[in-house]
Design brief:
It contains twelve helices and eleven strands. The protein is an alpha/beta fold and 314 residues long. InterPro entries: Glyco_trans_2-like, Nucleotide-diphossugar_trans.
């Protein structure tokens, strides 16, 4: 039987947390549920304490200084303290469905497979959250990939470098990974990234470990969309958006430097990083940097729309 540690970072999620935790409790495969309370300003800590007192599977952690450190640091703390042979993640405003670990029961019979992922559905918890989400993302009922895949095809697919479109990023809620793989490859969430640390982690994971898709045509977990979802608050190609994208792609670019990656992948990281870096510059220095970059790598012109937007904001 699988031996799973479920890691749930908690910040201002008092309204949703109990439903999230109760969705993970019934599974025989779940050995422990680790709540990392990240100095919430609501009564999340009290909810965590009540749940931990009521259910022996639940472990409550806080950062040593009891301060707020963000989701990445909270997940890293959960990884460090976990005792299961497998790791899964769950956001405090989301929940698992009864089929959450159906694919895992057979996929991990193959010792080569180090992780698997499935599809995540969407539940609109507020009308405002629904409108904001649908204004920025396609109104798809599933966050999933387009076809079954495994191994390096997943890594290349996540970067849009496969012959056919692989699909969107799969969500952390639908990922199950062997703890041994996380430890072997020293995988942790980048704590510099306040957003996109999940995508950063997933791409690095897909390179280092052998992943295989599980249930991708129906949801195995649900995302709760509400007024306070951070990802819907950022205007696409705004200065804030561009800066966060730069940090994300720069993280991947720096990670890639000592590795033996295909040239098209290294170029992809560089061009993405450079495009968002240029978008944050102004005036003469921006023009010089842009021309220098074009001379070295004309493919930067394929990302012209970012410069057009940035120019209109200056």
């Amino acid at each position: 039987m699988l031996d799973i540690s479920v890691i749930i970072p908690v910040y201002n999620a008092a309204e949703f947390l109990k439903k999230s935790v109760l969705s993970a409790l019934p599974f025989e495969e779940v050995k422990e549920i680790i709540l990392i309370e990240d100095k919430s300003t609501d009564h999340s800590l009290e909810v965590c304490k009540r749940l931990a007192d009521q259910y022996s599977k639940i472990k409550l952690l806080q950062h040593p200084d009891k301060e707020n450190h963000g989701a990445a640091a909270s997940r890293n703390l959960g990884i460090e303290k976990s005792t299961g042979n497998f790791i899964t993640f769950l956001d405090a405003d989301d929940y698992y469905l009864p089929n959450r670990f159906d694919a895992e029961k057979t996929i991990f019979d193959d010792p080569k497979i180090e992780g698997t992922f499935g599809a995540v559905g969407i539940e609109y918890l507020t009308e405002k959250g629904k409108q904001e989400f649908q204004s920025k993302f396609s109104d798809s009922s599933l966050t999933t990939v387009n076809y079954p895949a495994e191994g390096k095809e997943i890594f290349r697919g996540l970067l849009g470098l496969t012959p056919k479109t692989f699909g969107t990023f799969f969500h952390l809620n639908a990922l199950t990974i062997r703890k041994s793989a996380i430890d072997q490859y020293h995988l942790r969430f980048n704590e510099v990234l306040r957003v996109h640390q999940d995508s950063d982690f997933i791409i690095k994971l897909a390179f280092h470990s052998y992943l295989k898709s599980g249930i991708i045509d129906e949801a195995i977990a649900m995302r709760g969309i509400h007024d306070d979802n951070r990802i819907t608050k950022i205007v696409k190609y705004s200065p804030q958006y561009n800066q966060r994208q730069f940090l994300f792609w720069n993280s991947l670019y720096e990670w890639s430097q000592p590795l033996s990656l295909d040239k098209d992948i290294v170029q992809h990281f560089y061009l993405q990083k450079k495009a968002f870096e240029l978008s944050g510059k102004k005036g003469f220095s921006k023009a010089i940097d842009f021309l220098t970059t074009v001379i070295k790598n004309p493919n930067i012109l394929k990302m012209k729309y970012r410069f057009t937007y940035a120019h209109s904001q200056n």
